[in-house]
Amino acid sequence: MPVTRSGTTERGRITRRAALGLFALPFSSIQPAAATSRPPRIVCLDDGLAETLLMLGVRPAAIADRKVWQEWVVEPALPPEVADVGTLLEPNLEFLQQLKPDIILGTPYLDGIKPLLERVAPVTTIGIYTDNGHPYRNAVEATRKLAGLVGRQAEGEALIEATETSLAKVGQELAPFAARPLYVVSFMDSRNVRVYGRMSLFQDVFDRIGIRNAWTAGTNYWGFSTVGIDGLATADDARLAYLEPLPAGAGGTLTESSVWNAMPFVRNRSIMRLPPVLMFGALPAAARFARVLAEAMTAHG
Amino acid sequence: MAQSRSFLGAAFSRAGGRPLGALLLCAALTTFGLAASLANLAAQLPPSLWLNALATPNIDDMRQVLVHYAFLPRSVVSLLCGAALGLAGAVLQQVLRNPLASPETVGVSAGAYLALALATLTVPSLLAFGREWVALAGAFAALAAVLALSWHKGLSPLSVVLAGLVVSLYAGAIGATLVVLKHEWLAGLFIWGAGSLGQQDWVTTLWLLPRLGAAALAIGLMTRPLTLLGLEDEGARSLGVPLGIYRSAGLGMAVALIAFVVAAVGVIGFVGLAAAALARIGGARRLGQRLVMAPLLGSAMLWAADQAAQLATGPQGDLLPTGAITALLGAPLLLWLLPRLSLGTELPLLAAERLPRIRRPGILLAAIGLALLLLLVFALFCGPGPDGWSFAVGDQLQPLLSWRWPRVLAALSAGAMLALAGLMMQRLTGNPMASPEVLGISAGAALGMVVAMFSTVDPSRPAQTAAAAIGAFATLLAVLAIGRRAAYAPERLLLAGVSLTALFDALILLLTATGDPRAMLLINWLTGSTYGVDQGSAVLTASIALCLLLTAPLFVRWLDMLPLGTPALRSLGVDVASARLLVLLMVAVLTAASTLIVGPLTFIGLMAPHLARCLGLVRALQQAIGALLAGALIMVLADWIGRTLIFPRQIPAGLVATLIGGPVLMALLRRR
Questions:
Q1: How many Cβ pairs closer than 8 A exist between chain A and B?
Q2: Could you tell me the CATH number of the domain that includes residue A246?
Q3: How far apart are CA A19 and CA A180, in angstroms?
Q4: Residue B541 CA to chain centroid, in angstroms?
Q5: What is the ipTM for the molecules in this complex?
Q6: pLDDT in tens, B365-380
Q7: Which of B113, B403, B512 has the highest number of chain A CBs within 10 A, making it the mutation to test binding with A?
Q8: Fold (CATH) for B30-340
Q9: Out of A188, A251, A263, whose CB is closest to B191?
Q10: A89, B520: Cβ pair inside 8 Å?
C-alpha cells in the first residue's frame, strides 16, 4: 500500500515533534524512583500494575508476555533483568515455582487460574477495570495499594501527585483545542476500529484535561466499542487520534478507501498518529497518554 | 462409482423440464433482499437523494458517501460472491459426482483462509504479489490433501466430505496456533475470517469482477464436457472425451472462484452448498440449468442474508459477520437435506481390506507399552527451567512433579479415551475417516463452554466443566435423534455430526468476532491446553477413563462383528440397532470426558486406531489395546513438547497433537 495523504503529513509531523523536544521537559519529574532496600520478589501478571511498580522504583522479578512490552507499553522502559513467565493467561507454573516469588500480582481477569497461582505464592488481585467504570480512580487506589505492599507509600503518593500535576498541565496546554471533540481509536483492520469511550482510562484522562470525547455512544466492560470507520462520521468537527501499532498486514500505513477519505477528519486533515499507549494501563499510561496527545495536538495545530 | 449416477438422477428427479422450484425460491429471496435493501437504504438516506447518491454523490454529505461507497459496493459484492460460490458449488458437485461437495465441505475455503492468515501474520510482503495467489495456493493445497485422503475410496461422497472436514480441522489448528502465538491481532483476523462483507470503496468490487468473470466464462464454455462428467467413466470415454483434462479444468475453475471470494471477503459459510443443492432439488436437472440457477440462488441468498444482517445491526454493521450467519443458517439446511439425498450404501471396507497381520501381537503391544513408560519418565522428570534443561532429582523433584503429574495423567487418560472412541466409531461405521471429532460431540462440549464463559463474568472451573458436559450430551442426543430415523446408519450420523460441527464453529466464530478479551480464554481451552488441570480433575479424569476402559471388553464381540455390515449381523442374530446405540453411547461418554481435558481439536481418535491397524493389530481387542497405548503415547508426547518447545511459553497439547498427528494420519491414509 502506498503512503496515504495522512501518511505524508505524518512524516512531517515527526520532525516537528523532534523540534518540540523541549516539550517533554515538564514531565521529566515523573521518573522511576531509585530502588533502595530489598523489596519483595514480585511476579506481576498485569502490565498496568507492572508499569506502576516500575514507577515506584520496584523492579518485578518477572512479567507475562515480556516481548510485547516494547510494542504496546513502551515506557517506563522494562529493565532487561525482568524475566518472562510466558503468556498472560498461561504463565508457566514450573518457571514461577523456580523463581520463588514472595507475591504474585494479578487482576480479576486471572481469577480462573488463581488457585494454581496460589500454590506458588500468595496472590494479590487488584482490579483497575471494574464495574464502577472509573479506571483512573481505581488506578489511584491500585497505586496506593501497591505502594503499601512494597513499603513505598511516599513514592506512591508522589506518583499520584505527579500524574495529577501533569494532567493539569496538559489540560492548560490543550485548552485552545478543547472546542473540538476528539476520537481515540486503535485500528483492528483497514475497516474497523476500536474506539475508546466511557469506562476507559482514556475517557478519564479526557475528563481531567478538558477534552471532549467525540465517541459518546456505548462501550463494553473494558471501555471500548468495535465499529466500522464510517461509525465515526457523527461529529463533523471531530479530530481523530489513532494509536500505534497498526495491525499486521497493514504494512504500517492507513487505509485509503473512499469512505475513509471522505470522513470529515480526513478531509480537514485532523488526524494524528499517537505512539503506543497501554489502553488497559494505570497511572503511568494515563500520564503517557495525556503527554503524547498533547505533543501530537500542539504539533498538529 | 456405480451409485453416482443414481444419486444424480434419481435422488432429485422431478417431473417437468423447468426448475420451477428453484425459480420460485430465487424470486422469494430476491423479493426479500429488495425489500430489506430498500429499508436499509431508507434508514440511511431520504429517497429524494437516492439517485444523487447513486450517480454523483455529494462528498460533503456523509450519508451519500456511505451509500455510494459502502452500501452499494457491499450489495454488489454480496451478489458477486454469492454467485461465485453457487457456481463453484455446482461445478464441484458435478466434477466430484458428489451432492455434498461445496467450498466448505471439501476444505478449500479453509485452505485459502489459512494461507492468507499465515501470509498476513508471518510474511506480509507476500501479499504484495497479490492476495489471489496466496489464496489460490492454499485452496489448491487443501484440495490436493482432500483428494489424496479420499482417493482410495474412489472419491465417494462421504469420504470426500470427511476428508474435507479433516483438512479444515487441520487448517483450523494451524490457524489457532498462530493466534495463540500472536494473540494481539486476534480481533481483526476474526472479523475477516468470519466473512465480513463490509466495503468502503469500489476497489474490492472491481478486483472481483474480472477474476470471477473469467472463471465463470471458462466454466460456461466447458458446459458440454462437464455434463459428460456426470456419466459413467466408461460411457464418457467411449464418446471420446478426455475426462481427466475437463475434470481438472472444472475443479481448477471452481477452486479459483472460491479462492477469489476468500481473498476478497473471507469465508462465507455454506452458500455454495445450499445454492447448488437447492438448485438441484428445485428441479434444475440438467447441468446447464444448474450452472445458471445455482449462481442465481447463491446471489439471492447471500444478498438477502447480508441485508437481513444489516437490518439487525444497522447499516454497514460488521460485527455480525455475514459469513458466519450464512454458516449458521446453512447447517440446519444440511441437516434437512440429509434424508433427501441418496448417497448409496457404503461398503464395509474394513472387513474387505487385506491387512498385514502380526503373528505375535503380545510382543508388539509390550513394546508400545514400554515406549509409553519411557516417555512417561521423560515427561515427568525432564524439562527446561530458568537455568536450562535438567533432569529433576532430589529437592527440586517434588515441587516440579506436583505440576507435571496432573497434566501428564490427564493427557494420558484423554489420549486413551479418544483412541478407544475413535476405534469404536471406525469399527461401527466401517469408515476409516470416522472419529469422535466428526460426531460433533467435541464441538458441542465447546459450545457449552462458550455459553458458560459469555453468560457469567468469571465462571469457576467446575462450572465450565459442567457446561461443557451438558453441551456434549445435548449434542449427542441431537445426533442420536437425527440418527434414529435412519436406524443409526453410520453415514447419516457422520453427516449430522459434520453439520453440527459447522453450526457450532459458526456460533463460536460469531462470539469471538466481537473482540471480547474473554475470547482469548476460550481459544486457550479450544486448543486443548492441559494448563488448568489440577490434581483433583486429573484424578477424576483418570478414574473415569479407567472405569470406561474396563467396560470395553464387553464390546469386543460387537466390534469384531460390526464391520461385517448389517445383513451379515442380522443373520448372526444380532440386534443391530441396539448394539449400535450402546456403542454410540460409549463413544459419547468417552469423547465428552476427554474433550474437557484436551479440547475438541485433536486427531487422536482418528489416528490411534489407524496406527494400531498399520502395525498389524487386526482383531478388535488387540487393536483396542494397541490404539489405547498409541493414543496415550501421542497425547503425553504432545503435552511434553507443548510444555518444553518454546519454554516458558506453552503450546496447547491438543494443538501439538493435531500438528504432529495430521501429517502422520495423512501418510497412513494415503498408503492404503
A1: 142
A2: 3.40.50.1980
A3: 25
A4: 27
A5: 0.76
A6: 999 999 999 999 988 8
A7: B403
A8: ABC transporter involved in vitamin B12 uptake, BtuC (1.10.3470)
A9: A188
A10: yes
